[in-house]
Amino acid sequence: MTLGWAMVGTGWHVRDRMAPAAQRAAGTRLVAVCSRDLSRAREYATTFGFERAYDDYSALLEDDQVDVVYLATPNHLHARQTVQAAQAGKHVLVEKPMALSSAEAEAMVEACRRARVKLGVGFHLRHHPAHVEIRRWLREGLLGRPLMLHLAWVRANTRREGWWQDPSQVGAYVTMARGVHLLDLVTFLTGHHPVEVTAVTDGQRDDRPLEETAVAVLRLPGDAFGVLLASRLLPHADSSLTVFGSEGRAHAAGTLSTDPAGSIEVSTTTQVHQVSYSGADPYQLQIEAFDRSVIDDTEPSASGEDGLSVVRITQALLESARSGRAVALPARSAVAEQHAADGMGAGGQ
Predict the structure, then answer these.
(1) Domains in the chain, please, with CATH?
(2) Cα–Cα distance between 13 and 26 in angstroms, integer?
């Protein structure tokens, strides 16, 4: 079965990642692309093989050949556009951050539930083979009880302009660009939802509302911790993920990225396991996994409930940065807890 996809937004992420990945993805037909600039939409249609170009989102939603709508639009538009797509009977894969508030995220989940369509969130790091492998080792107890996770997505890069510098549209800066991926990955790997977050940033204040470096400590159940660093200011820095367990350690280098590369080393008292990765595109795997969730009527690998959880953690992180105190987190819904416990949608596995 082949599903018809529409992509909304013509920024670099669609150009460099998602559209090329969708071209390669099995069972995926590129039906439509939408931009406020019709000439740009037509350019993308020609370049990537979309059958039609739109500059009107409502018109795109009336296209009966479109089964899935992928939203890569400014952050503040995600909620409204997701609800519109659900009401039109379209499945939705929305880029992170899912929404700017938990109220918006809850409305998105409810709209898709009522319409009986799938809602997924673009956490591509769940689909990197290295993270799938580390998750398997944790689930099988090969590292023992998780004690500490350290995640750093850091590098120096050009500051994004336009809507990325408008707090009302972006919500936060590096936290929304990279931090939300790290927050989601902690839950994906461990199956545990943080119970408390403490954070500091170089923003979230009147004279500098948007941060470029964020550091957070997550308290997990069972006296485990996650230490997260996201920054766009650190030249010659290496992004990495390390999981320390009671029986071993897993270290991933170069996997916290938009590139399909990196390596892992897993060390226990009895063995050392090393793997290098190249060419396993997490974006293609993400698209194919979402297609399977639609066809098989299962939850997407990163579901709306997962996205809602990250929105709540993000709100707590930003509140902690503003207030200078630890912020407790609400318990996840029973649906989300069961989803994590069952290991559903494990990176396309």
Answers:
(1) 3-123 (3.40.50.720), 125-342 (3.30.360.10)
(2) 20
